[in-house]
Each structure stands twice: as C-alpha cells, then as structure tokens.
Amino acid sequence: MPGNRPVLVGEDAAPPAAARLMPVADAAPALAPGQAHHLTARVAARAESPASPGTVRLRPARSGNRRGKALLRLISPVAVLGLWQLVSGLGLVSSQRLPPPTQVWSTAVSLVTTASPAYGTLQGALLVSLERAATGFAVGATVAMVLAIAAGLSSIGENTVDPLLQMVRTLPLFGLIPLFIVWFGIGEGPKIILIAIGTAVPLYLNAYAGIRNVDPKLGELARVLHLSRRELLTQIVLPGAMPQILVGLRQSLGVAWLALVVAEQVNTGAGLGFMISQATQFLRSDVIIVALLVYCVLGLLTDGLVRVLERRALSWRRSFVAA
Amino acid sequence: MASQLRGSVTVRSSSAVRVRGLSRSFGQNQILSDLDLDISPGEFVALIGRSGSGKSTLLRALAGLDRDVTGELAVDGAVAIAFQEPRLVPWKRVSDNVRLGLRISDAQARAAEALTELGLTDRAQAWPLTLSGGEAQRASLARALVREPSLLLLDEPFSALDALTRIAMHRLVLSLWENHRPAVLLVTHDVDEALSLADRVLVLTSGRISYSCQVSAGRPRDRNRPDLSALRTRLLTELGVDMEGKI
Q1: Which residues are B22's β-sheet partners?
Q2: Which residue of B has its CA nearest to A313?
Q3: ipTM
Q4: Paired residues of B201 in beta bridges
Q5: What is the pLDDT of residues A230-277, one digit of tens each?
Q6: Residue ranges of the domains in chain A?
Q7: A-chain residues within 8 Å CB-CB of B87?
Q8: Could you say which architecture CATH assigns to the domain A122-322?
Q9: Distance from the B227 Cα atom to the nearest Cα atom in chain A, whole angstroms
Q10: Is the pTM of this model over 0.95?
C-alpha cells in the first residue's frame, strides 16, 4: 500500500496503541485525531529514559498534557461557532439566511419534540433515511462481495465479472437518476438502487484487488494442509484481503451517504432529504442546517464503526509494528 | 496418500516414498528427467544439488503441489512440509496456525502438545509477525508434525537462520525425528548439514539422482571424523566443486 508509515520504537518502549502499518490517512486513532501526538510523545519519553548513548531519539516530549491539547483543538471550532453567533445575532447577515447556532439548536429541539405538518419529526425522517441507506448498502455490499470473490478466485469469474464492473465504475452515478425515474418511477426502488450501485463499486474494486493480492504462497499452504474451498475462503482469502476490504468499506459508506442525500431530494415523500426540500420551499435555512448536521453525525458514526472493525480485524498487523 | 499420476499403476510397497520415471519440464527446460527414488519408512534422507538442479521441483511433486509431473509417484500415508520460509498465516495466532486444517476432535490439545515439544508454549497466543526467525521456523515444524506425517518434507528450512540457531534446529529436528519416526526428505545445499543429519545423502544433477551414499556414523556426529571428511570431499566433487580451489 502506498503511504505506509511504520512507526519505529525503541526495544524497551511499550507498543504504541496508535502505531500501525497503514496509510497515514487511516492511522488516526478512533477517539480524537490529536491522540496520535500524545502517544508519539509518550513513546519518545520512554525511549529517552534509559539515556544510553545508542538510543535513537524520536521526538522530544513536548510539555502539555493530553487534556491541554484536547482543549487546544477545541479553540478553532468554538471560535467559528462564536463568530457565527455574532454575525447572525448582531444582524450582520439576515437570520433567515444564516440563523444563529442558538436558533438552529432550538429548531432541532422543536423538530424532535413536535410533529409539524410540513416536516413531520426529525427522528421519523431519520428513521426513513436510515432504512433507505441500510437497505441500499446491504444490497450493494452483498453484490460487491459475491462478485469480488467470484472474480478474485476464478479466471472465468474474472473475465466475466471484472470488465462489467470496470464499465459500471465509469458511469456517472448521479447521471443515472433521470434514467431510473423513467424506468422505476419515483418510489423507493430507484433510490435504493442508486445507493446500492454507489456502495457496490468501491467495495468491489477494493475487495477484488485485496483478494488478488493475497500471497499465493498461502494458497499453496492451503493445498498442502488440505483446506476445503470454504476454509480457503474464510481462513486465508478473506482475512488476507481484509485490510483492502475495509478501505473499500469506508469509501463505499461515504458514497452511500452521498447517494442518499442526492436520491432523497428527488421526488420523495419522507426522510431527511424530503425535510430539506420542504424547508427549501419555506425558506427555512435553520431546518436545512439541522438536516445537514444529522447527515454529518451519521457519516461520523459509520466511520467510527469501520474504525472499530479495523482495530479488531487488523490487530495482527499492529503487533507487527509494535514488535 | 497414494496418488497415482498419469500412466503407470501404483504399486503398494513397504516404502514411504516410491518414485519411478518422474519427469517434469517447464517449456523447453527438462527439470526432472526419468527420476527414480525410494525412501523407507523412518529413513532420514538428505537431497543436495546445485541451484536449478530440480530439488524444489521434486519436493513440490512429492508434496502434491505440482500436478504436471509425469511418471509414477506413490507416498504411503500423510505428507507434511516445512517450507523454506516459515509460511505462517499472519492473521492467525501461532496455535491456530498449527491446528489449521486439522480435522480431529482434540486439535487444540494436540496443537498445544506440539508447541510444547518445540518449546513454544509461551508463544502459542502470539501473532506470527512477532516471532523471531527460529521461533517461526519451529512453529512451522510444529504445524507439520501435528499432522503425524509418515513423510516429512523439509525444504531448506534452516537456510535463513543464523549459524547458532541452525545448530539448535538441527538438534531439535533429530530429536523430533527420533520421537516420531517419519521418513524425512531434507532438501539442502549445505553438505555439512546433510552429513550431520541424514542416513543417506542423495545428489541431484540435471534432474536425476546422480550419486547416493549411506552415512553410517552414529549421532551426534563429529564433522571432523575422517570418514565424514572423505564423504564431504566426495559429495563436493559430485556437486562439481573442486577441492583444489577451482569452481
């Protein structure tokens, strides 16, 4: 993988929890992005302590503890929030265009507590959107994995499946919407299909590449150990492709949310996208902002989920770096 | 496993390995040509040869990894192999590597037993990438032994180890062999290694066994014994190395 940055530690240093052999973009720890720095600092401090002349100094331990840095990182978001409040609170920008954060908050609360005839409730809309995204994602991910295994493990599969998927990859996803409306009407079908295609393509491409990159020597080992085809798949091929599959999973979740947002704003009667298009008609930018924030939270949550998966599934690689 | 390859009839015999007229070519290159080989049950055989002589090809054929060989090849019982590199599955802990593909009810216990025998009890739950070279090779041997093979194939398994670890591994392999008594075929390019371990040393030249000799000295062997020295000189000559210094 390009961009690997193994973290070297002294022999006496404790295995840093954040150190893993992964692209730098993936190497951010699950909790706060700032955590990596603290861990590096801790390792550096340990490496220094024996004070032997041969010790390699990694990075001087900076003063300031974990909490201090976390506070530091809060400064810019809080400043932006304050500025926002100031600008719209003082009337520099009309609050209809940019409602202040306080108003966004109270709108969010009232959307949750009261069902308005125009929007319904926020949680109702969220549930509809979640169901759409989950259905589309499940269909897309299943198809992608089946196709990737077929293409990755047999040459017939490779020659029949891969060219097709490479073609689908070049299709402009959102350009399909008009065609889908003509074909499937404006029900749930076209939305779910759009999300499924958006999910399937990146997951397929990564899973297929991952399966192809599994060390052929391990395939030989499987033959020597008389592993069944099923064992070969579950014990060797899929775990071997897992790092790449997880990269694909992350990409496809990103596309899934994006496809959801786009699909939902076309001819929908329910969901977060419907809420946004209703709010557009009533010029309620506060409602639009609330819905957008909900999308953000959903994206963050699924990303966190993949990170948890990564930490569990790839712990064997972290130990390599720590050793 | 008595596998029958193209052509002739497999004859059940008392040998652990019986090979007749084995040939294999890659394109124009004839790697094995009409090779015959017998290994008795429990016999320790070393196979030496220059690189490209077909050692690995023969080993892969015996392991059932090469389906394009022609001739007769019969192996009586289970075959296990330890590869040149330990080839542990990196995402399985050591004990899970050892019992991978093992279809017996007490696989877990048997794996633990094998690891104990190889001095790896405390590494059973380690990830393979954290093992040292010697530990990884021992884990690979444990994985081979736990299958109770009647034929154990060793493909230069010590070549990547440092000299001290290699000596320890030689002793370990001998004691394992004495305890389990599989027939062993050790492929190596190290004449001394062959002489210190094997009952019989074979030289492979251009796809055929060109020379074979018994090593009758008891173990452990002193490599400076005059009969072993004479054998070494002879084997090196067979390998095409002139002791006067020309190569």
Answers
A1: B35
A2: B91
A3: 0.86
A4: B46, B213
A5: 999 999 999 999 999 999 999 999 899 889 988 888 777 888 988 998
A6: 1-63, 71-102, 122-322
A7: 217-218, 221
A8: Orthogonal Bundle (1.10)
A9: 38
A10: no
